[in-house]
Amino acid sequence: MTKNFQPSALMVVILTCLIMLFSLPAVSAQDFFADMFPGLRLIQVEEGQNFTYSIRVEQEGKVTTGEIDFLLVEIDHGLMEVVIKGEFGGQAVSTRAMGWKDNPQEIITNIGSELMASLPGEMEEMFMSTFSMAMMFTAFYGDQFVLGWELKDDEYGDGVVMSIPEMRSYAGVEGYLVRVGEGDEGFMEFGIRPDLLLPLMVNVRGFMDAFDDEIYDDEIYFEDFKYNIELIGFSEDADVSQVEIAETEVPLLILASVVEYFREQGLAVGERSPKFYDMMGAAAGFGVDIEGDEVELYLFDPETATPELLESLEIARETGKFDMMGFPMPAVINGNILMTGLEFGSFYQHPAKDEIIEVFMSYQ
User: Fold this and answer.
1) What is the predicted pLDDT for the residue at 206?
2) CA separation for the pair 219, 322 (Å, rounded)
């Protein structure tokens, strides 16, 4: 069966959200988050919160199931570690993500970074279409959620884009049922309690396009897919005493010590902003406002880095250019820590570039 491709309302909303969420400005990151994602203000991140989900994926006539568990543990001075374990289609999933409890957007971003780096491909698709979409919509609109709430498409008519028709309970946790999109073009619904980091349930159905190699008439064949996660266990005070904390130094704390060193040397230090550090091949990373503009810090682990990444880092030490997906990005390296964002071609240069580099290179 063929059909002409038309972007659904759901697809437009999702793409718009992705562009806005991941295209962050270089300055005033916290103000940007507060204004653009007011729903994040409601999230309360606490040690002992434990989420367990069932997973079901139906795609191209194949059904794959699994289960995944998220446990929040406080490591030190408000730094939270999210311990993630589970299995999907018989394949084990195990990773950890970190972030400060007063910065839920950082934890959300870092969970995404770690899962995208460690999940099998089919489950990575599921994560982006379920957990990520639910958290994204909640970040934009969560402060408005009440029973009966509707978001209408004012630009193209008075159709309802999102709505909350009822309350539902999952694993004993009651939340809002939010529906996004209707009809055959695509559909998404999720359950959310706005003060929790993760959703209660997400159902997504739609079309996955597949091109037939023997047909060249620009027609697209569509396969139905359905993704579902559902909370099957939840605790707000799970036992974390048996969780093993890695004996090696925590990457995020190492970068935090660099920021503290900037402050000790008299530089004005502002707020942090999350970054998808896995795209850099880094073990941790974030942006931080120094002397009025943002710089980015990334920590690399030579024990886990690929030979190609190690070569790129060595070239960056020699040339001051780090290869970011084919783009030579100006960078400064001290040990295993890379700093970038100080300049962009002839268009931009950080006003305190030289002073920041001098302090950074003196850090030991």
Assistant:
1) 76
2) 41
